[in-house]
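Severity: low
Component: inverse-folding endpoint
Summary: output formatting inconsistent between runs
Steps to reproduce: submit the following structure tokens with default settings.
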């Protein structure tokens, strides 16, 4: 799969919702890396108890941008 086809596939998979769609396909843009990242959110409860929430995120790292996404709830 060449670079342009890869960018078109990524563009089709992303849903921007109410946001203005970001033009992913560009001649000068190239996907460098993509993959899963886990965001840890620490919450301190009363009595000193600590609760950690894990939120899986998915990153697309391009030559000129980084897009952070999450899975769409079905």
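Observed output (run 2 of 3):
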């Amino acid at each position: 799969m060449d670079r342009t086809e890869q960018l078109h596939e990524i563009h089709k998979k992303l849903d921007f919702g109410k946001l203005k769609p970001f033009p992913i396909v560009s001649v000068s843009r190239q996907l460098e890396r993509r993959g899963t990242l886990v965001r840890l959110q620490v919450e301190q409860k009363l009595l000193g108890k600590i609760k950690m929430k894990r939120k899986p995120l998915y990153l697309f790292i391009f030559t000129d941008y980084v897009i952070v996404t999450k899975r769409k709830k079905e």
